[in-house]
Amino acid sequence: MTLINKLEPQDDFIGFYLIKELEIKQTNSTPPKDYFDMTIGDSTGEMNAKFWDISESDKNMYKAMQLVKIQGSVQVYRDKPQIKILKMRTINENENISLNDFIKSAPIPSNELMQTIQQTIDNICDLKIKEIVLYCVKKVEDKLLHYPAAKTNHHAFFAGLAYHIVRMLEIGDFICKQRPFLNADLVKAGIILHDIAKPVEMNAQMGIVSEYSNQGKLIGHIAIASSWVTEAAITCGTSLDCDQVIGLQHLILSHHNLGEWGSPVQPQMAEAVALHYIDMIDAKLQMVEDSLSASPQHEEWTSTVRGLEGKQIFRTNF
Amino acid sequence: MTLINKLEPQDDFIGFYLIKELEIKQTNSTPPKDYFDMTIGDSTGEMNAKFWDISESDKNMYKAMQLVKIQGSVQVYRDKPQIKILKMRTINENENISLNDFIKSAPIPSNELMQTIQQTIDNICDLKIKEIVLYCVKKVEDKLLHYPAAKTNHHAFFAGLAYHIVRMLEIGDFICKQRPFLNADLVKAGIILHDIAKPVEMNAQMGIVSEYSNQGKLIGHIAIASSWVTEAAITCGTSLDCDQVIGLQHLILSHHNLGEWGSPVQPQMAEAVALHYIDMIDAKLQMVEDSLSASPQHEEWTSTVRGLEGKQIFRTNF
Amino acid sequence: MTLINKLEPQDDFIGFYLIKELEIKQTNSTPPKDYFDMTIGDSTGEMNAKFWDISESDKNMYKAMQLVKIQGSVQVYRDKPQIKILKMRTINENENISLNDFIKSAPIPSNELMQTIQQTIDNICDLKIKEIVLYCVKKVEDKLLHYPAAKTNHHAFFAGLAYHIVRMLEIGDFICKQRPFLNADLVKAGIILHDIAKPVEMNAQMGIVSEYSNQGKLIGHIAIASSWVTEAAITCGTSLDCDQVIGLQHLILSHHNLGEWGSPVQPQMAEAVALHYIDMIDAKLQMVEDSLSASPQHEEWTSTVRGLEGKQIFRTNF
Amino acid sequence: MTLINKLEPQDDFIGFYLIKELEIKQTNSTPPKDYFDMTIGDSTGEMNAKFWDISESDKNMYKAMQLVKIQGSVQVYRDKPQIKILKMRTINENENISLNDFIKSAPIPSNELMQTIQQTIDNICDLKIKEIVLYCVKKVEDKLLHYPAAKTNHHAFFAGLAYHIVRMLEIGDFICKQRPFLNADLVKAGIILHDIAKPVEMNAQMGIVSEYSNQGKLIGHIAIASSWVTEAAITCGTSLDCDQVIGLQHLILSHHNLGEWGSPVQPQMAEAVALHYIDMIDAKLQMVEDSLSASPQHEEWTSTVRGLEGKQIFRTNF
Amino acid sequence: MTLINKLEPQDDFIGFYLIKELEIKQTNSTPPKDYFDMTIGDSTGEMNAKFWDISESDKNMYKAMQLVKIQGSVQVYRDKPQIKILKMRTINENENISLNDFIKSAPIPSNELMQTIQQTIDNICDLKIKEIVLYCVKKVEDKLLHYPAAKTNHHAFFAGLAYHIVRMLEIGDFICKQRPFLNADLVKAGIILHDIAKPVEMNAQMGIVSEYSNQGKLIGHIAIASSWVTEAAITCGTSLDCDQVIGLQHLILSHHNLGEWGSPVQPQMAEAVALHYIDMIDAKLQMVEDSLSASPQHEEWTSTVRGLEGKQIFRTNF
Amino acid sequence: MTLINKLEPQDDFIGFYLIKELEIKQTNSTPPKDYFDMTIGDSTGEMNAKFWDISESDKNMYKAMQLVKIQGSVQVYRDKPQIKILKMRTINENENISLNDFIKSAPIPSNELMQTIQQTIDNICDLKIKEIVLYCVKKVEDKLLHYPAAKTNHHAFFAGLAYHIVRMLEIGDFICKQRPFLNADLVKAGIILHDIAKPVEMNAQMGIVSEYSNQGKLIGHIAIASSWVTEAAITCGTSLDCDQVIGLQHLILSHHNLGEWGSPVQPQMAEAVALHYIDMIDAKLQMVEDSLSASPQHEEWTSTVRGLEGKQIFRTNF
Questions:
Q1: What is the pTM of this model?
Q2: Which CATH number do you get for residue B41?
Q3: Is residue E216 part of a domain?
Q4: In chain A, at which end, N or C, are there fewer CB atoms within 10 A of the end residue's CB?
Q5: Residue F268: its chain E contacts at CB < 8 A?
Q6: Residue B309 maps to a domain
């Protein structure tokens, strides 16, 4: 049983894996032959894999998000490791393999994350804010149990969004104690709501985003979430012109800080400035942590990280 | 009776004018004396004016948006003409002077503009779109009768916003005939709604914007208008997920084209691309027309126009 | 007989097509074998095609811009459809196939477009402007009958340049009526001349640009057209310093609006501002229309369009 | 006794103040007269002040950083409040006024801040790092007791630099607990060293920066601090090529994140990413807090803050 | 007799100066009084000057570009030295004062510069290039004797343009010897022609640019010079398509390197790359030299230089 | 014996070459076969080469930086020429082949370059500067004999760095004579030191950079060189605050001119401005010269050059 992040070029191996992507392609040979171009993974990582010379029954049997047992070897193609599959079969019920073991997950169980978020909402003093936050969270409650926070950038794993919120709440709590002039209700609400519409912006399964939705592309999670606050206020009978509604919408709309990063207005409330940087520090450090854990322990440098100006990260070891 | 745009340095003059701005300031002399620092104007333009050595009763008598009769002379201060007021008094009722004659207005009467907008709405075929547009226009109906389209950039005059909409509707109508693949309902609705929240973004009187509102700074007219579509859909019982609602929100959100110009999403529907460029061509040509008519006929170059990359415009005369 | 834009992966088909590009390449096999790497097309689109195991006589027989009959099947390679050619032969004279049926063309016949342009020139009142426009158009008259307006960006089809000019003239005519302060002669002349040197900037055949010319790369169509105005004025005996010559050169030089888009000066005449935005609205909407018609009717999203900030376009269907 | 931040236009007042800046200028009158153009302040803020009709003895008696008693009135000049001084005298010894009461200071006493920094250094485990940090802090120990962190941007007050370091250490401590993969020694050292050369970059007295030094302009605090690490390593006998020296220099050099913000390299270690965002969150929130406390309680909006994209901050009050 | 660059605040002085600019303005006093707002200068520099309480005969007697004798004193206004004129009179013929002594000039006499340029043209081997260069230089021969190279940026003095050309020719000569693959004819021609249309772009007298011309604003010196090459080729009977014409136009059009700096095409010939950097090194070092010589010897830092990223220059003195 | 830059598609050839890169890869065939993916080169250029069907002994025998005799043919793969190796063997001692003949080298022997640099140092008058320069050069003396100046951008050949320095010294010498106000010692020292830390930033062999070092990525050659000046000053007993040390550090730190190009401070000394442009003119012209000589004589255009805004260079031939 070999974990993905332990596979090295030239290795022969056998193991259980999740098919994360599967496409039928054809070789250039005459006549052309069909083969599977796949991404297989487990909780430790993922790798491209080729299954050559497939049969018609193979084509019917295998598809994405399926668990399989694979015998293969690791080759190098265009400087990247790639698996050549020699044998593949579906798993038996009595092999007792759970899908959950094969996907990358937040280090804290999903229901605990939800509890923390729920408790934070309970502790919001301002009732108008509390009602609106509750309404918005309700809209995506089910998805919050498993959605990632992004497609590839950061927290791209099972319950990544809820995990991102909870870690930000911890930092927010600390910063509010350090600087008591901040309105703690707004900071909490801003953290919970800032990415709350991501489950509508993206389609995801098992923590893996497959694509952006139409609404995601045409409106974006920032404007969707802002509209949810409008919807919540109407439902709760709160005036759309009251400071709480305007404040929450401002927090959501400005949290990307600059127009070129997607925010139609820039932070102009203390809590909006705080929200942006709390979001940044958590997202960026998660990217660093993920890229370090995804690269082999003995490598000094990770691969390049798009969200960190395309830089590689150096592993300090003293 | 001398019009503002006819005043030249060294002129002595008498006339009726509108006090557009008035501030009490103090000279550096010992002891300091109070004076009025004013902007006076008529339908042809405006100019800075100083009224030295004012009395206490002057301070009580005069304020902004008042009509007055002035005797003065034109001086030059820091390369700009400036009026030195020698005498000033308020107008008598029997002088038969109407405020409307002293402000810059759209060349078409306000109620005619509103009729055109109303008729365009009547001709929208898609009922969901029609209802939403109607709802949003109703919210600002009164203000649409007189609001300018911007603080200084373009259409900064009485009913400028309605005039901007009507001219854009004319262009939109032409483009939809030229390219029938465009959805004419969406183009019409997009034009009417794109700046519909400007009367909430800015505080204005008589076509003059005094300042941005809190909502204007914190949320901005783009996100406000998008939320109004949400509100309208809820009120009309239209699903927030239907294509019409998403389409209208996309048109509003993307009409500034780029993130750095305030749009959180970029145009991704044919009608959104059309809307942006129809907005641009009308706004930019209005800036040109306004700057040419605001500068003396005998001057080859206008003053610099901020909305046109800070360039001056050359007056062609052949 | 199957049209290119109807071909789907796995299809087997027979039909007549135009060879748009053809290159002889070699496989990695031992010993390597020659094959044709081709782009084949018809009036509806184009697709990559491979012809494996070619003979020496094949190499002599086939070349670009030739019409052929092909039997093949559609495969998928690197996520894109690709044709595998099984049989190919040249056409017989009695098959009555005309090259014109196989290239994408403007929806209006080339000679009608030229007539419209000619009539517009006839209607220019200012004689100096008329002479210069006439002189410049004469220089590329033959090419104007068939040249595209760009390599890939927009109007990249047979007579695309003339079509672009004619559609812009329609919009220009409308805008001049809407805003009578514009000089209609300058607007017309600017539209006809703004891209007039493109046939010298690019080498094209049948509406397909193969490459930029040396002059195109080293001088660019903007400076070439400006020099043509100089040449025209000298030939017509018009002073190089008169307002008409300066005005026309300004229109040409500034029509890309910004330095980073290739304009050495920015629009500083009302007609130059109008020209730029008329150009933009026509070019951008043509890109939208082309990308929608090039993608299958049942797909909600087109492929990405470079000229539209790299965005895909969403197909509205209500 | 009136505090600066309580002064409103038209107020007459008497009080003790610090002369922060003083320049002798001349009026435009004939003959010209000398006057003092001053900035006076106390612990709550500062304001421009004019003292007209000064004598020769006045010129000899008054200079910057002197405490004086002033009788004056508040006027408005170019939209800003300005003090007109009616009487001014130096203070008597028996008036028991201390300079310290007149300057803005960190809310924690300077020596406590230094103790916290010293304790943090004591707790660094890696001896090479500890020695280098100690050496660099020693170089500016005296100045660290009173230097501000910047000229105007943030923490521009007495002991502002030490205060900035201490608050960052608190956040760093929290983040290191939240993400144990971070090397706490590097985070602590990075926080202490990142701005350690600012006292050499700028000349300051009583928390007020008067100007940048030659070294500050020509080399900058980032490269100076990096050279100090070199110097420290040589003095301590630590190899310049060891990971600790390279790591510390990387932290210092990259802490502004981007080239255009002054960093010659970008963060490429987890601790460097953490350092940059800890610096940002503390600096930006301090700017917000300072601008809110510098503007009157009843004003909804602060003046614009250069370090926050030139935005004003809105005061929430629920 | 005191030179401008020796005047210090508080100085009383008498001397001869050139009136470079003169405007009649009015004080804010009641009644307002006329005064002269002037720029006076000599060969060492220039300074703002005020002449208060002028008479009607003063207004008739004095104008720009006149030589006068002044008695005055140096004051400080808004941190800048300013002259208060106590007495002023025009000069007598027998005072033997020559205008040339009062303007900043190239350090080499104008006619020697022209000779060098003429000799360089004589040494161009390629006859087509030689003829074109000759034709273009002829067009501005008179103005080349005295025109500056720019309004303020660099070489803003009498014969500055010719001096800039000659210094560049020296560098070009050196570089061509160092890298013999460069075509020396093209380098010479490019240097002489690159700014040759500046005398048409700007209106200047005695080395001082008063304003840009209409042609300068609407077409710009880059496109004007490129059109002159067209004109020259037509006159000389040289084909517009030959490599020499295209090459010279490319050199002129690309010499600002980037679109945002005004070049519609970027350097794509070896000689065009050389030309751009030879231009840069000469222009930038002249800015440095001018700003150092314009600031007092005892000051370590010059004032900010717009063409050097707005930086001040440090005077090294070892 | 065929030189690389003479090889054309379809050529069969035999010759001696240097293996510059060698990687073992595997084909997609079933079962996969190992092959060599190589870059082979000589003094005239380099090309990709494939050696199919290799044996185990081949894998042991061949590695990078080895000289071999090859029989092969030139094919085209993805529009680029590629060598198919038919036979390969290592060279015999008696074949008298020297590695030096197979690498691209500076046109002047390495030891002559070093002599020139040494003589220049000898002629520096200021003793403090001379000592520091000497110390820094000593640190990399061995590497300076063969290091390239960059990985790919410019002077990427054997002794390229020393060659770049020497050519810059020639230009610097000329410019100092043309503008005597420049401090020649600083110019010389700046040229020698500006890239002196590149041998530590990059790992190179035989003029070929394989990768950046950890120090290179984390600190960068600019900050490393600046620290060397610190080290040199400490060793030589020169004060770190003296003008010479600050001046040299400023020259090094600012020589990339802008923050986004890696300079933490911008040039603020005359010699720093000179250094930047001397560096630019030499680097850019070398890129041009290299790209022209690397492309076949009969091709009008070179391939694109990354350091020249991604442009191709046109070969003039008159």
A1: 0.91
A2: 2.40.50.140
A3: yes
A4: N
A5: 311-314
A6: no
- Give the DSSP per-residue string, C269-308: BHHHHHHHHHHHHHHHHHHHHHHHHHS-TT-SBPPPBGGG
Question: Among the three residues D67, D102, D137, which one is the final residue of a domain in this structure?
Answer: D102
Asked if residue F310 is part of any domain, the answer here is: no
**Those residues with Cβ within 8 angstroms of residue C92's Cβ, 6 or more apart along the chain or in another chain:** none
User: Is the confidence at residue A31, as pLDDT, over 70?
Assistant: no
Q: What's residue B236's pLDDT?
A: 95
The pLDDT of residue B87 is above 80? yes
State mean pLDDT over F63-85.
86
- D15 CB near a chain F CB, below 8 Å? no
Q: Are residues E23 and E54 in the same domain?
A: yes
Interface test with A, best of F23, F27, F30, F212 (most A CBs within 10 A): F30
Instruction: Work out how many domains chain E is built from and give that number.
Output: 2
Q: For residue B56, which residues of chain D lie inside 8 Å, CB to CB?
A: none
Residues C119 and C187 in one domain: yes
**Chain B residues within 8 A of D52 when measuring between CB atoms:** 28, 30
CB atoms within 10 A of CB A177: 12
Cis peptide before B31 (omega within 30 of 0): yes
Nearest CA in chain E to D214: E314
Q: What number is the average pLDDT over the span E225-244?
A: 97
Whether the pLDDT of residue F220 is over 60: the answer is yes
State the nearest Cα–Cα gap between C191 and chain A, in angstroms.
Answer: 33
Per residue in E286-299, pLDDT (tens digit) is 999 999 988 878 88
Q: Let me know whether A146 and A224 are in one domain.
A: yes
Smallest Cβ distance to D218: which of E52, E76, E314?
E314
- Are E270 and F313 in contact (CB < 8 Å)? yes
The shortest C-alpha distance from C268 to chain B (Å) reads: 5
Q: Give the HSE-up count for residue C251: Cα atoms under 13 Å, Cβ half-sphere.
A: 28
H helix runs in B159-269, sequence order: 160-178, 184-193, 198-201, 214-218, 220-236, 243-254
Is C173 in CB contact (< 8 Å) with chain B?
no
If asked whether residues A51 and A116 sit together in one domain, one would say no
Claim to verify: residue E139 and residue E277 sit in the same structural domain: yes
Contacting subunits of B (3+ beta carbon pairs below 8 A): A, C, D, E
pLDDT tens digit string along E152-202? 878 888 999 999 999 999 999 999 999 999 999 999 999 999 999 999 999
**Nearest residue on chain F to A315, judged by CA atoms?**
F214
Does A78 contact chain C (CB < 8 Å)? no
| Contact across the interface for B171 and C179, Cβ inside 8 Å | no
**Secondary structure of residue C133 in the 3-state scheme:** helix
> Based on the domain organization, do E85 and E134 belong to the same domain?
no
Which pLDDT band holds residue F214 (cuts at 50, 70, 90)?
very high
- Lowest-pLDDT range of C74-88, C297-311, F298-312: C74-88
Contact F52 C28 (CB under 8 A): yes
Low-confidence ranges of chain D (pLDDT < 50): none
> Is E298 among the domain residues?
no
| Residue where a domain terminates, one of E102, E123, E146 | E102
How confident is the model at residue F102, as a pLDDT?
83
Report pLDDT digits (tens) over D34-65.
889 999 988 888 899 999 888 888 988 998 88
Would you call E190 an interface residue with chain F, using a CB distance cutoff of 8 Å? no
CA-based nearest residue to C124, from C188, C182, C194:
C188
* Residue E207 confidence (pLDDT) above 90: no
Instruction: Give dist(CA E49, CA A249) in Å, integer.
Output: 55
Q: What interface predicted TM-score (ipTM) does this complex get? A: 0.89
| F159 and F287 assigned to the same domain | yes
Let me know: does C248 contact B316? Beta carbons within 8 Å: no
Query: C139 and C29 in one domain?
Result: no
Is B30 an 8 Å CB contact of chain D? yes
pLDDT, average across residues B241-251: 97
Q: Which domain holds residue C23?
A: 4-102
Q: Is-contact F194 F252, C-beta < 8 A?
A: yes
pLDDT band, very low/low/confident/very high, at F28 (cuts 50, 70, 90):
low
Interface test with F, best of D218, D226, D249 (most F CBs within 10 A): D218
- What is the per-residue pLDDT for B32? 64
> Which run of H or E residues covers position E20?
strand E12-26
Helix (H/G/I), strand (E/B), else coil: F202: strand
